[in-house]
Design a protein that fits this description.
The chain has 589 residues and is mainly α. The protein is built from 30 helices and no strands. 68% of the residues lie in helices and 0% in strands. Helix 26 packs parallel to helix 28.
């Protein structure tokens, strides 16, 4: 018994020795006494999940809110638009482009411009390339007013211009002798346009400034061009050298030539475009031998194997230098050589300018029949004369008493589909007056107006003076009535026609003119004109005619105002009667 109790105590002691500590005992909170309780708890939990999903599931299903991005800065509505790339010229817009090009080829520029305008607000908007095609066609025919009108329209319609559009505008302003507007347009291109000017832009601007006798400004633009990273352009230097030669500044020609060689780092310029103007500089200095040596180096015998590249423009400069310095025979030999070498499209040696230079050379030596023969032979090399070509030859013929030949050329313009301009008609009109043909002179002026050309006030005055000088006062008065709505007359124009009518003893017509001036635009009847009219009326005892006209006009104005007031009162009474007829009689009573 003692041994058994000892073993029991020992065993219990050992069991207590290996018993884990109390802190390691983990309570099971999810234990259930029976499986039924566990199943009931699972069902309860599922119901709770269906009614109220867990937060993790909510976070998973909730769409992620985008991070607030910084609000973009509002775009400037006045910022220039970026022009469309040429890749947009596809599909229906390409079809529209081709239809308008077809109208241009058919010389129906009015319809082409109208079609472009109508398409602007359609589902198929023309591209800037289509608009530029129409503008360029109008420029080729010197339709400057129509061109500027179309450009204004497409600009207001939001068609973004490209560099070609700016080049066309620069050409227009420079051709119209508006270099200030051209420089303003260039400044706008530099500061506002989202693109840079091209080399062609600078060529157009510098050539136009030289043609407008602004050589110093052209030199500044040349420096600006090179400052913007463009390489020294021999074509630009040729324009500047030509301008210096026209101003008889031979030293300026040589300085530009040396500057070009220095900037290109070459002892000899291989672009032949400068050699004609370099020859002009030598001729100005009386250095004929050096000029002819330069000629031989460029196109003569010494040019065999030379690296100098000659274009049609380069040839034309040399032709001009020869023909205007007593070397017409050499110019004619070169011209024949150019025609023989001309092999388009691989080699272009002759263009319209080549024929113009030779025609001017013949005219300078009074060889007009040969000039006309060369002029008529342009078609052999597929050259088509333009309005300027006709004007040059017509002017030379008229100034040398060959009006009949000039009129034949004028009639030939219609066959060549070349439109005469104001200069053409004015030249023929002035020559007809000199040849004592006032009827033909007035006919040319009338044709000019009917052709929708715009003669200026100086041309109108020459017409009036020519007609009055030969006693055609009635004809002069008819042209006065025709041009009053079209021209802004000055005091001298009014005084001339009024004085002519007084000299013819037709003061009644003067009174009608004064009456029309006071009714249409009283500002035209200035104090100077009024004093002139009163003085002439006083000489014939009719000095009160002007006062009578003014009193009559004031009376008519008063009667018109009274009539308007009477009609307004009548309208109010009619409105009151209409309202009264709609209301019940008791309310009216």
């Amino acid at each position: 018994l003692f041994k058994l109790s000892f073993l029991t105590k020992t065993l219990s002691g050992r069991l207590r020795l290996y018993q884990p500590p109390l802190i390691s005992i983990v309570k099971r909170h999810f234990a259930f006494a029976t499986p039924e309780e566990a199943a009931a708890e699972r069902r309860k939990r599922k119901r709770r999940l269906r009614l109220d999903p867990p937060l993790a599931a909510l976070r998973h299903q909730q769409p992620q809110q985008p991070r607030p991005s910084p609000s973009p800065s509002p775009q400037n509505p006045n910022a220039p638009k970026i022009p469309e790339p040429v890749s947009v010229l596809t599909g229906s817009r390409l079809n529209l482009h081709n239809r308008i090009l077809k109208l241009i080829r058919e010389n129906d520029l009015e319809e082409a411009a109208l079609y472009t305008r109508h398409s602007i607000y359609s589902n198929c908007k023309p591209t800037i390339y289509t608009c530029n095609s129409v503008l360029a066609a109008q420029l080729r025919q010197s339709k400057y007013a129509e061109l500027l009108s179309l450009h204004r329209f497409i600009t207001q319609a939001g068609v973004a211009a490209n560099v070609v559009t700016y080049n066309i505008l620069l050409t227009v302003y420079l051709d119209c002798r508006k270099p200030d507007l051209a420089l303003e347009q260039y400044k706008q291109l530099i500061t506002d346009a989202p693109f840079n000017p091209s080399r062609t832009t600078y060529r157009i601007l510098i050539k136009g400034l030289v043609g407008n006798q602004q050589i110093e400004k052209a030199l500044e633009i040349k420096d600006d061009m090179e400052a913007k990273g463009f390489k020294s352009d021999p074509t630009v230097y040729s324009y500047l050298m030509s301008g210096q030669a026209k101003n008889s500044n031979a030293e300026g020609v040589f300085e530009l030539h040396e500057e070009l060689k220095k900037k290109t780092g070459m002892d000899e310029i291989f672009d032949g475009v400068i050699y004609g103007n370099l020859m002009k500089g030598y001729f100005l200095k009386g250095m004929e031998a050096e000029a002819m040596e330069c000629y031989k180096r460029a196109v003569g015998e010494a040019s065999e194997g030379s690296q100098i590249k000659m274009s049609s423009v380069a040839y034309n400069y040399i032709l001009e230098a020869l023909s205007k310095n007593g070397k017409l025979d050499e110019a004619l030999k070169l011209f024949e050589s150019m025609k023989n070498k001309h092999d388009p499209p691989r080699r272009l040696c002759v263009n319209l300018g080549s024929y113009n230079v030779i025609v001017e050379g013949y005219c300078g030596e009074k060889r007009f029949l040969e000039a006309i023969e060369v002029f008529n032979g342009m078609g052999e090399k597929r050259c088509v004369p333009d309005t300027l070509s006709y004007n040059v030859l017509i002017d030379e013929l008229c100034n040398n008493n060959h009006l009949a030949l000039a009129e034949e050329l004028y009639k030939n313009m219609a066959d060549k589909k070349v439109s005469p301009d104001e200069y053409t008609f004015v030249t023929l009109m002035d020559t007809c007056f000199r040849e004592n043909r006032p009827g033909d002179a007035s006919a040319y002026f009338k044709t000019m107006v009917e052709s929708k050309l715009r003669p200026n006030l100086g041309v109108y005055k020459r017409l009036m003076e020519g007609l009055v000088e030969v006693g055609e006062v009635d004809e002069a008065k008819s042209f006065f009535e025709l041009m009053v709505p079209k021209l802004r007359m000055d005091d001298a124009a009014y005084k001339f026609i009024i004085g002519s009518l007084f000299e013819a003893g037709r003061h009644e017509e003067v009174v009608k003119i004064v009456d029309g001036m006071l009714r249409e635009d009283p500002n035209d009847f200035t104090e100077d004109v009024e004093a002139f009219v009163r003085e002439r009326l006083r000489k014939i005892g009719k000095e009160d005619e002007v006062d009578k006209i003014k009193v009559e006009i004031e009376r008519e104005k008063a009667e018109a105002a009274a009539k308007i007031a009477e009609e307004a009162e009548r309208a109010k009474a009619s409105a009151r009667a209409a309202v009264a007829s709609l209301l019940p009689s008791k309310l009216v009573g």
